[in-house]
Amino acid sequence: MTLLNTLDLTYPIIQAPMAGATTPELAATVSKFGGLGSLGAGMTAPDVLNSEINTIKSLTDRPFMVNLMVLSEYESSALDSEIPAWLSNYYQEKNIEFTLPKHPALSFAEQLQVLYDNPVPVASFTFGIISAEQVQRLQSLGTRVVGTANHPLEAKAWADIGADAVCVQGVEAGGHRGGWLPQSENDPLGLLTLISQTRACTDIPLIAAGGIMNGKDIKAVQTAGAELAQIGTAFLTTDKCGINDIYKQALLDASQGGRSSETRLTRLFSGKQARGLLNDYLHDFAQFESAHELPPYPQLNAMTKFLRAHATKNRDAEHQSLWAGQGVTLVRQERTVELLERLVRESYFDRRRLIFNSAYNRVDTVLKEYNATGINYSQPLSA
């Protein structure tokens, strides 16, 4: 059975679960269309998460996905690093008041409990891997489990604990990278290479993510060995997305030549590698980019929260985290449904054309073989 059938989808399209950008309305719109809408819930409090799940269920009876960030109890609770001097100085220069929180992130265990108490059709996980027992518990509740991998060994690890599928995220992808093994950062793989190498070591169904912006990209990753395409950046500039107007305009400007479309992998906002548009913040503090200079994720993320909030309040794109993939030049300002219709139209047109070309080539070959015999096939055969 294909993953399309397993997840009960009409089209091989997953809207990426981008924390801070996805909304219940966005997820429901994609799911009602026939794709898999997703809610990026890694930064969502448990009570809010429960409410948002119920909202999606009230908006559609189609399958949808909830994504959580896998953090240990220590990672989510410890704030034992000093705030970097350059960041503290910036706050002082800009008169930005800040008080560090008691904990840098929400409890993953408490978020996961919401999925046990209020089951969802699909649950995906990033930044780490859960246990086989947790996978089995989710599956016993009717939830399909999807892991995230930046390296073939991470994909195999998910396969070994019984996950239903793995989303392989190429280096082209916008936002945070989902892997956790050192190999995934030491030698980041492009999406097609990652699909090929992963397919060589495991037969678990694959979802492709990273730089996918149109129907041709969907067909390309399917040809390479993935069953479904997970698309993020293209949805950011649609009407149902929850990002602020300044962020959205920066993406559109990058696509229209109004600002640089260069993207960069950086740890400067959160302590974990993520890809976003190059802006003044990334340029001005690039000298502190190396991992040993920075507090780890999620501690630095908690420390830069005030910088990002101040930038948003002041409509300043140059100090926001403008997460975007390498396909950002292809974003459009359009309704979410319009994007979905275009993706289907492009991908299915291409498939019909391939089928037609294949059939034409077969007929052309047969005719050439007939002509080579010298027989006149327009005359009836004698008895």
The stretches of 5 or more residues where confidence is low (pLDDT under 50) are 352-360, 375-383
| Anisotropy-based shape | globular
Beta-strand content estimate: 5-15%
- Count, helices: 16
Number of strands: 11
Q: What characterizes the major β-sheet? A: 8 strands, parallel
Q: Ends: how far apart?
A: 50 Å
Question: Could you tell me the mean pLDDT?
Answer: 92
Bin the helical content. Answer: 40-55%
* Helix/strand/pairing category: alpha/beta
Indicate the radius of gyration in whole angstroms.
Answer: 23 Å
Query: What topology, given as strand order, has the largest sheet?
Result: 1-9-8-6-5-4-3-2
Kindly describe this structure:
44% of the residues lie in helices and 12% in strands. By secondary structure, it is an alpha/beta fold. Helix 8 (152-160) packs across helix 10. Strand 2 (37-40), helix 3 (46-59) and strand 3 (64-69) form a beta-alpha-beta unit. The protein starts with a helix and ends in a 10-residue tail after the last helix. It has 16 helices and eleven strands. Mean pLDDT is 92; it is low at 352-360 and 375-383. The protein has an eight-stranded parallel β-sheet. Strands 7-11-10 form a three-stranded antiparallel β-sheet, with no helix packed on it.
